[in-house]
Amino acid sequence: MARKSQDIERLFRMQKQIFLFSSWLLQKLDAQVYQLNEKERRILLALSNGDLAQHDRFIANAAERLRRIIEEMSRLSEARAKVNSEYDRQRLMLKLMAERLARMRGEEQRAEEERDLMDLLDRRYG
Hints:
By secondary structure, the protein is mainly alpha-helical. It is built from 2 helices and no strands.
């Protein structure tokens, strides 16, 4: 029984590490989205300025940059959705593993108490 709870505890620690990695990945994706939003805001601000709006080359470059930003944001959104799904799955698995570990520890504790009681009864009445 002790071997089983050790295995579950090891799996639980691994599950925690995967969960933390998913959390870190979500934070990284959020930072990338924030940076892209800032780039997009700066470009749109420059385009809305009347002085720069007259320059065809600038507008073409800005439009291309906006297109790339939008494509990257789309990829980031897809990646974030996948990571978020995995994050939720890992959180659920971590919760289930913690419950299973607690149950196993309780069973081991009860079995140990039962053995101690049987030993005591054997010594007392045996």
